[in-house]
Amino acid sequence: MEKNPSEPDRGDKTHPYPILVAEDDLVTRKLLEKILTKAGYEVVSAENGGKALALFESRFFPMVLTDWIMPEMNGPELCRAIRKRVTPGYVFIVLLSVKDSKYDTIAGLESGADDYLTKPFNHCELIARLKTGIRILELEGSLRKANEEIRTLSITDPLTGCYNRTYLNERMLMELNRAKRYRHPLSMILCDIDHFKKINDTYGHQAGDHVLKEFAGLLLRSIRNTVDWIVRYGGEEFLIILPESDWIGASNLAERLRRIVSEKVIHIEKTEIRLTASFGVTGFHSIPRDAEIPMDAIINQADRHLYLAKQCGRNIVKSGAPEEWADSKR
User: Which residue is catalytic, options 110, 236, 255, 324?
Assistant: First the structure.
């Protein structure tokens, strides 16, 4: 027997795209609720455009069905209001109306609706139009996901999974501005694997790549996932940015990282490789709001401490507050 297109697919209990219905006529509103619920959709309804907009602002609805003529806010006004909102995804809007002239259809579509149905509408046609909307939403979702993946690739070091210099240039300025605005601490650690060239020369570049990935993994697992972030700054150099941490707290973290790295044994086939790393730390307890602090100046300060750690025999942490901004020491 041929399946009625208004019936839900077999096995579907709830639809992934909830629908917001705006309809002032009680009978029509209840009819829409019944049709859509039977088709497997989750339905939330309101008796006018104003209440529908309030519901939309409290919860995202990827699909909206709205009548044209309603009190407080009519259908075209609701369409325009939704289109002005910043939403996490596209919203497919169907405008329902007794108006059936070409002029009315064009006016409805120009208000922001994606589709237009005249009343009384055919139930199967309504479901078919919504399925068209779902295809649009799924396509938009696929494109958004692809764009996010491209964005992730553009700011990520492919070998270690840490961020790259491009991301550093974008985000570090935001971190500095936030720290200045709220007078919050901000620190960074520049670390370098000791004698990394010897590892490459002795075991080969594939082994060197494996060591870099293992080293980066140790760092990533030791920081606050939602606050701190790591950049592969150079070949074997990594920059750890620590918002909400002053240079003393950053120094304590660097010492813990130094110990973790020195205790790590990396196995490559039958070979055991032990690492050490050197760390340079700098940061602020607070940054004066009127201070002009170039990003490179802070990194250079961390680099000077790292160079000192190398000079002192490696496998050492050297740290200090930037001398140029006395207020940061308070």
Answer: 236
